[in-house]
Amino acid sequence: MSELTPQQFTVTRADLVRYAGASGDFNPIHYSERVATSVGLPGVIAHGMLTLALATRAVEEWAGGPDRVVEFGAKFTKPVVVPDDDEGVVIDVTGKVTAEDESTRSLSVAVTCDGVGVLGAMKAVVRV
Amino acid sequence: MPIDASLVGREFPPTAPYPVTEVKVREFATAIGAPVVEGVVPPTFPIVVAFAAMNDFLADVEADLFRIVHGEQRFAYERPVRPGDVLTATLTVDTLRQIGGNDIIGTSSLITDADGEVVCRTKSTLIHRGETS
Fold first, then answer.
1. Distance from C-alpha of B60 to C-alpha of A38, rounded to nearest angstrom
2. Mutant choice from A13, A52, A60 vs B, greatest count of B C-beta within 10 A
3. B7-128: which CATH topology?
4. pTM (2 decimals)?
5. How far apart are CA B79 and CA B119, in angstroms?
6. Which domains does chain A have, with CATH numbers?
7. What is the pLDDT of residue A1?
8. Do the Cβ atoms of A23 and B69 come within 8 Å?
9. Which protein family is named in the record (chain A) (predicted)?
10. How far, in Å, CA of B79 to CA of A72, rounded?
11. Is B71 on the interface with A (CB under 8 A)?
12. Cβ of B75 under 8 Å from any chain A Cβ?
């Protein structure tokens, strides 16, 4: 398989609260509209690490488990604004193999929200 | 207030040792919607320790967390994290740039286990948004 199975993840405000507690990242830009807009953000935004965690899940599933992922990362190029409703926002993840050798495969992963990239230069290296 | 450029190259003291428990891993996996599998730790989990190092750093430079936006994050593993590990993060400031009133802070953190062996290397770019923004 040279491509990830495309995946969609939904993120709601409740997910941000849960992630804040689990990660220890209590930056108020992830729960307070007032604070987020005061620093020039368009609204409450998802933790970049939550978006990266979701995208990495797609890589893990493709690779056959979390332990196979040896390297990964991305730039948080565009904030994922999470509306104060029950529907939340949908994140799309696709990816393809860019290089392989005997023991590893390298992937380039595209993460978008409403068709616009939210993570930049996302790459992952997995053990075969 | 811009961040002091003399910080570049400075290594901060290691964070307090962090015991990785099954309960905490389950909480983290649930928060990212990942399957909960005993003994398996999500690859983004070390952010918990890296974030603690970042908080210590922000307190030291008297920067407000709400002015920080995460710009980039990378992880490179030596071995997977396991429940029972006791992890410590040591943060170094690699680069500092000022662009349009914002500080762009490049950091790296070494995540080590109780034996001092490297488990994971992380790199983070933090954007400290200036007061005018």
1. 23
2. A52
3. Thiol Ester Dehydrase; Chain A (3.10.129)
4. 0.96
5. 6
6. 7-127 (3.10.129.10)
7. 73
8. no
9. Belongs to the enoyl-CoA hydratase/isomerase family.
10. 14
11. yes
12. yes
Answer whether B123 sits within 8 Å of A25, measured CB to CB. no
The interface predicted TM-score (ipTM) is 0.96
Instruction: Tell me if chain A has a CB within 8 Å of the CB of B59.
Output: no
| B4 pLDDT more than 90 | no
* Cα four-point dihedral sign A73, A77, A78, A84: positive
Q: How many CA within 13 A on the CB side of residue A46?
A: 30
The pLDDT value given to residue A65: 95
Ranges of each domain in chain B: 7-128
Shortest Cα distance from A9 to chain B (angstroms)? 9
pLDDT in tens, A50-61: 999 999 999 999
Structure tokens at A92: 């799309």
* Mean pLDDT estimate for chain A: 96
Q: Which candidate, A101, A116, A107, A125, places its Cα nearest to that of A5?
A: A107
Quote the CA–CA distance of B51 and B57 in Å, as a whole number.
10
Q: Is residue B82 less than 8 Å (CB to CB) from chain A?
A: no
Q: What would you report as the CA-atom Rg of chain A, rounded to the nearest whole angstrom?
A: 15
The DSSP string of B36-78 is --TT---TTTTHHHHHHHHHHHHHHTT--GGGEEEEEEEEEES
